[in-house]
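Hey all, quick one. A colleague (J.T.) asked me to put the INI job into the tracker so the inputs and the structure tokens live in one place instead of scattered across chat threads. No bug as far as I know, just bookkeeping. Sequence used:
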Amino acid sequence: MTNEIWTFPPTTLACLDSTRSPILPANFTSESIATGFVQPITHQGALNGKGFRFAIVASRWNELLTSRLLDGALDALERLGVKDKSVTVYRVPGAFEIPLAALKSAQTKKFDAVICLGTIIRGQTPHFEYIAGEVARGITQAGMQTGVPVVFGVVTADTLEQAMDRAGVKLGNKGFEAATAAVELANLYREGFGKG
Ligand code: INI
């Protein structure tokens, strides 16, 4: 959506006086802005996946939960109009392996966005910290290095119950959310930055 116009009620304008704000000039009154605020051009991606292509990188660790994330992501893409042939799924062993597969998918430039899915549960060892930190860092890097939106749909949880809640039980489905974000970003990048 472009050219979204924000207006403020008169009470908001009345609050804008120089006695209350350290950044307004001393002679400022709400009449000073009688001409109105700057009307920015705002870009916001639509939720329409038609014509876009997506890669999903999903790990197999905690498969019971990660498969729910994958189902959620595919459900979102289908609902948002993405065609079957426009989605490629790459499965990797564990979440630690997600970043490189995400980077390689993004580097192909075949996809408008890459959706990363996995489940990391804390357990009793420091393993969790290493894996979760590296996965988050690596997923960020894959996007930054390629300019392709790479979306974080990895559940990191202290307990199995918390992970289940985020895989479709109480707190939504992180796969669904990630895929929805990917569609929005694909639209934003095309409309807002002229890609595609
Ligand atoms: N991989 C996960 O995806 N989730 C986990 O919770 C996890 N834990 O707890 O160890 C996990 N470990 C495997 C790791 O991702 C790699 O596959 C493995 O170390 C081989 O590189």
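Adding what we noticed when we looked at it: The chain has a mean pLDDT of 88. Residues 59, 61-62, 93-97, 118-121, 123, 127-128, 131 surround INI (CB under 6 Å).
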